[in-house]
Structures are given as C-alpha cells and as structure tokens.
Amino acid sequence: MSLSRSPEDHDIEEKLLADDESQWLHQSKPRQTFPSWAKALLFLATAAISLLAGLAIGVHKQDLDGACIDRVAKHSPLLSDVQIKYHDQQYNGSFLHETIYRQDASPEVDEAWNALGANYRAVTVPPEEAQRSGLTADHVQINEKYGGGYPANVEGMHHLHCLNLLRQALYYNHDYYQDLGEGAFKNDDYILRRHVSHCLDILRQQLMCTVDFAVFGQVWVHPDHPEPFVDFNTEHRCRNFEDVRQWAEKNQLPEKTPADFLQHPRSVDVVHAEIP
C-alpha cells in the first residue's frame, strides 16, 4: 500500500533540507572575526614598518651620498658643517636666449657673477683638519695670536672666479674691463695673459677630471625647412651648490687684516724661488 504525500508535505521537506544545508555550511566555514584591539595593533604594526622602511631608504640614500663624496672628493673642512646632497636639475642650455651670466659686460652682469661667489676671499682651515685637507706644515699659516690655522680658498669658488675671468677677457668684453682697471685688469698685459691662460687650463683639468658621460639628443627646428639641432637642455644630478656657497661666504676671512695676520715663514719652511 502506497502513502500519498500532499503538496504541503513536499514544501515542508524542502524547507527542512535547505535549513540543514545552511546550518552545515555555517558550521563548516565559521565566520572569522578580529577583536578591535587586534585590528588596531595590526594598523600600528603596518605604520611602524612603513616608517622604518622610509627611514631606512633615507639613511641608505645619505650613505650613498657620503660614499660618493668619499670616492670622488678629497676632505674639506666644509664637510664638517655642510651635508652634501644630490638632486636632479635641468640645465638651461638655450643657444639664443641669454641668461644674465651670458650678457654683455655691465654692472648688472658683474653683480650676478659676484653673487655666485666668484670673488670670495679665503677661509680658515683649522690645524686639526689641515693634513686631511691636503695642506702641509709648509703652507702659509695664520698667526697664533689671530687663532692660527691655514688660509685656503674653496676650489669650487675659484673655478667660478676663473670662468668669470674668461668671460671678462672675451673679445667683446675685454675693453670694458680694461678701462675699469679692476681685479685682474690692474696688472700689465703679461700678467693678465698668464692669469687668463691659468684659468683656462685649470678649467680644462677640472672638466677632464669630472668628465661628463651624459649625451645630447637632437630636436627639429625651423618648421618650414626642418633641420636637426642639438638639445643642450639636459637633466643632471647636481650637488647642493647653494649650501656650499653660503658656507664659503660665511667663513671668509676679513676683507682687511692686520699686517702681522700671517705667520712669518719659519727657518724649516720651504720658500719657493719662483711662483709655482
């Protein structure tokens, strides 16, 4: 004998099966929850790791900058006060649009070059840093009564001085500065020529020592008749010049010093027979 099932019985059976399946799934995959303190701890840990990673990257970059300076430069007392850093800088290599540094001789142009430190005076190198800076006991020293040490010029400022003198000696600027009769132009023609050629050769050696191996691309100019022209507006990795300039400016020796400011040569000091 068969038992008949009503539609209501069928619906009830399906509902029970569905409830059992839902309960089984719920028990098999329990919902995972984290207490609020655990979430906060995870957030703080993530933030701390990010901070430490950032600090590590910054320290690593400083280490690289320092290693670079140790590799390519001799010691300088400047390094005790100035941290040498590097940044990307776009050169202004315009061929036709002149900056103030390229313009014809004038008081305004001279002021711009002077502001770069082209005529800064010497600084004092403390005795304890002299040997590391390449100075010897035979180099000129400052009288102990005025603090001792060695008078010395920052080479980067001297390079700018030399470049400025080459600018002044250009054929279209020479007469202007010859008439002024200031600086290098106080001297007779023989000394002036040697001064100019000295500066020329110093800059030659500097450029060869720090040879730049970047490349210039080319751009198209003159839309009516296109032709290639070198693009001198390149990007370079540069040191923080302004910090160096400010240090050289701040640490200059006085413009006027007493007659006995420099220590007179001792009997053991080497005195050259002619200008080296």
Top keywords for this entry?
276 residues; mainly alpha; two-stranded antiparallel ribbon; 8 helices
Structure in words:
The protein has 276 residues and is mainly α. Helices cover 45% and strands 9% of the residues. It contains 8 helices and 6 strands; from the N terminus they run H-H-E-H-E-H-E-H-H-H-E-E-E-H. It has helices at 7-28, 36-72, 107-115, 127-130, 155-168, 174-180, 189-209, 241-250, and strands at 86-90, 123-125, 150-152, 217-221, 227-231, 235-239. Strands 1-6 form a two-stranded antiparallel sheet. Strand 4 (217-221) and strand 5 form a beta hairpin. Helix 5 crosses helix 7 (189-209). The N and C termini lie far apart (131 Å). The chain crosses the membrane at residues 40-59. Belongs to the ustYa family. InterPro entries: UstYa-like.
Topology (elements, then pairings):
Blueprint: H1 7-28, H2 36-72, E1 86-90, H3 107-115, E2 123-125, H4 127-130, E3 150-152, H5 155-168, H6 174-180, H7 189-209, E4 217-221, E5 227-231, E6 235-239, H8 241-250
Antiparallel strand pairs: 1-6, 2-3, 4-5
Helix pairs in contact: 5-7
What's this, in brief?
With 276 residues, the protein is mainly alpha-helical. The protein has helices at 7-28, 36-72, 107-115, 127-130, 155-168, 174-180, 189-209, 241-250, and strands at residues 86-90, 123-125, 150-152, 217-221, 227-231, 235-239.
